[in-house]
Every structure is written in structure tokens, then in C-alpha cells.
Design goal:
The complex is a heterodimer. Chain A is mainly alpha-helical. Chain A has helices at about 1-10, 15-40, 45-60, 70-85, 95-115, 120-130, 140-160, 160-170, 170-175, 180-205, 210-225, 225-250, 255-280. Chain A has one domain: ABC transporter involved in vitamin B12 uptake, BtuC (Orthogonal Bundle). Chain B has helices spanning about 40-50, 90-95, 105-120, 135-150, 165-180, 215-220, 220-235, and strands at about 5-15, 15-25, 30-35, 55-60, 70-75, 155, 185-190, 200-205, 210-215. In chain B, strand 6, helix 5 (about 165-180) and strand 7 (about 185-190) form a beta-alpha-beta unit. The chains are: A mainly alpha, B alpha/beta.
Amino acid sequence: MDWISKLQYYMEFPFVKYALIVAILTALCSSLLGVILVLRRFSYIGDGLSHVAFGALAVASVLKVTNQMYIILPVTIATAVLLLCGGKNKKLTGDAAIAIYSVGALAIGYLLMNTFSTSANISGDVCTTLFGSTSILTLTEDQVIMCAVLSIITVIIFVLFYNRIFMVTFDENFAKASGINTSFYQALIAVITAMVIVLAMNLVGSLLITALLVFPVLSAMRVFQSFRGVIIYSAVLSICGAITGILVSILASTPVGSTIVIFDLILFIIHCLIGMARGE
Amino acid sequence: MAYITCTDLSVGYNQDPVASGINFEINRGDYICVVGENGTGKSTLMKTLLHLQSPCAGSITLGDGLTPREIGYLPQQTSVQRDFPATVQEIVLSGTITKGFGFFYSKQQRQLAEDMMEQLHITHLASKSYRNLSGGQQQRVLLGRALCATTKLLVLDEPVSGLDPSATYELYQLIAELNAQGTSILMVTHDLNSLQYASHVLHVKKNSSIFQERELYVQSKHYQQVSQEDSDGLDQ
């Protein structure tokens, strides 16, 4: 029972507790939003927005801003609103728009970091931001509080506007004809998405955010028939994956982000098999 | 007074009309079929009546106690809906949203949804997933949702497209039943067979529209023209 005592030893440290709290909160929020994004065919927006956030982070570090969130959050929110609230009349839509923002921001971000960074280990820095290799284990108390506040806001909005969010996601035209202000809800969802993605960058790094957004939802969709069921179950799956991933990564000294995603992937494969066995 | 009176209405996007000179009215108990070639603005007219977009010119007057939100809508299916995980009950219930004020559904709203599912014979499907239903069942569910919003006026956008003949027949019967119970129907259609159920026909063209009672319309040269095109299309 060596690993239990090892785990107990690690749990003494505040940074491990912080990591677990942030992981659970991020997993919860991303699975809630993931349901909407996957159903609206925006699965890859997590990846795109996180690259935009990476670009903004690079700009912030070049400008030596004390709290980088002041730059990252507004830029990411603006991009999310542009992507998710565009009508059908825009010239650049859907996956093409995501691709452009994503790749453009990534290029700008890396260029800035490479040219202006004072750090000796640029590729290490980039790797940390993209894959979140150690960032979750270096969280401060302030970051944990910020993460908790954002998560609570997300959950409250989701619970209060659940019926309207369902309508707007399922059938935008019908919702509009029923007098629902669909642009407001789309903007609301875009803003929360941006906030959650910035949040999730701390946890798994930008490249792996997409996994947090899509895996639990797709797993839940294999076995649940109702919208409510899918939302609740994907939140449960997401949290389980995050906790297991963190604990295993601590015990086995593997990178946190990729470990979580691998657990999400395993859960997805299991649910695919369950779905197939049921003949869905 | 009529539920809806359209006078010299032009519809289109960004002040660029796709159809103009539309004059017609919808009265209580009417069954109006909207016909016309593709791209003549039938769907745009629907969207304008539903306040999804504003008219380019002309006026839409509501009367007979009809409020702007009391128009039930059966839209064409979107690609998003095909694999959407939602139960029949969740979808029908969402139609009642205009009847409530709070964040959550009230008892009355849940009861209304129950009643509508009963009326459309889909109660046994209540906990089934929408994506696993047949096309005809899916249309019933969306019809139930529209009826939860209102039973005064239903606007249907090509409701039978993609349905097999027996499901098409059943859906037409159902719509006729609703009409007999007093619900006014406005239906965009490509299926000239559906004209037999209508009381009036609205033929939308680029610069003018013809609005006649069905008996008069089927004898007119406009009908000859459309049915000729229809059979030409079948020959090809």
C-alpha cells in the first residue's frame, strides 16, 4: 500500500489541494459548455480560443503587464463573441473562422515570445503554456479564488437560463419567434466560453482544452437520451476524469494535462462500447 | 377583423426585396397554402410574419386579439437537430416558454405540454430521444411544441419534405384536424396535392402575388402554370 501513503504525503501540500479544486471546477464548467458547443458544431472552438488566449498571453508578457488576465480575458471574450454570434451573412464562418483566429494568434504569440522574451528557455515556456505541463501545480491562492468565482458564475447562469439555453441551442429560429432574445444568449454563452477557456488554460494548457470540452459530452451522448441527462452525466464524467488524471499524474510523475485527457479518452472508448452494445 | 393583414408587403434581406406586392389576410379558421417557385421568398415571407426579420416595405397588421408571439412555428429541420440528445418531452415543453415568466417551467406549463402530447398521440414517446424517431414522429413533436406556444395560428414551412407518403398523409390529416378545431394554418408547400386541404392559396411571385380561394385558384392560369412545371419536373 505504498501508493496510498504516497498520496497522503502529497495531499499535505496546499498546491496539490489547489490543483484538485481547480481541476474539479474547470472540468465542471467545460463539460457544461461543451454540451452546447458540440451540439452547435463548434467542437474546435476550445482549441481556437485557447490559441487566441495564448497570443494574448504573449502580448501581455511582452508588455510586462502585472496581471496578465487584464489582457487575456478581454481579447478572448471579444474573439468568442465574434465567432459565436456571427450571423449566416458573414463572409467568414464556422470552422474557417476558427482556423484563421487560431493559427494567426498562435503565430503572433510564438513570434512575440521568441523575439522579446527574456527567459532562457523559450521552448519550455511555450510548452508549458500549450500543454500545461506544470502550471496547475504552481497555482496561487488568488488564482484558485478567481477560478472558483468564475465557475460559480458559470454554474449559476447555466441553472437560471437552462430552459432558454436549451431552446436557443436546439432551434434558434423557433426561440427567436417565441420572443427570446437569441443574440443575448449567444453572447452570454460566448462570454462564458471565453472565461472557461482562459480558466482551463491553467489546468490542461491550451492544446488540450478541446479534450475537456468535447470528450465528456460525446461520452454522455452515447448513453443518455435527454438533454438534462447528457449535461449532468458529462459533468460527472468530466470531474471523475480530472480527479483520476491528477492523482495518477502525481503518483506516476506524468504530465497533468495529458494524463487527464488520456483518462477522458479511455472513458469515451468505454462509452462508445456501451453505446454499441445497446445498439444505439 | 383578420388575424393578420398584409398590405403591399415586400420581403427580403437588407432592403433587397425578393418578393413584393404581397396582399393577403389570415382569418380565424383559414387554411392557407403558400406556393411559388424556389427562391421567390416563401420562407422569407414566413420569417417576416414571425418577426424574425423586418419587412422591406408595406405593412403587416395584427388583429382579432392576436399578439405578435401567438404564432406557432414549425420550421424546417436543421442539421443540428439530427443528433441532438433531447427527449420528446423536453422539446414539447420548450414551446410553452412564452406562457411563463420565471426561469423554470411552472406546473401549468408542464400540464399544457402533457395535453399537447396527448392530443398528437405522442405521449408514449415522451421519454424517447428525438434523434431516434422517424421523420413523421419528429414533425409531430415539433408540431406539439408549436401548439404549446399557441393554438390560434400555425405557420408551417414545408412540413412534409423528406417524409414518406404514408407519414405525409398522416401529417396532413393531423393538420386538417387542428384546422377543424379552429387553428388557422399557413403552410408553405411544394406539394400541390396538399392544396386539397386548403381554403385559400397564396401564390408568391417576384413582383406580385395572387391570393384566392382554392376553388377559384385551381381553375386559374396560374395553377395551370405551376402544375405544368410540376409535371415537367417529374418527367425529367
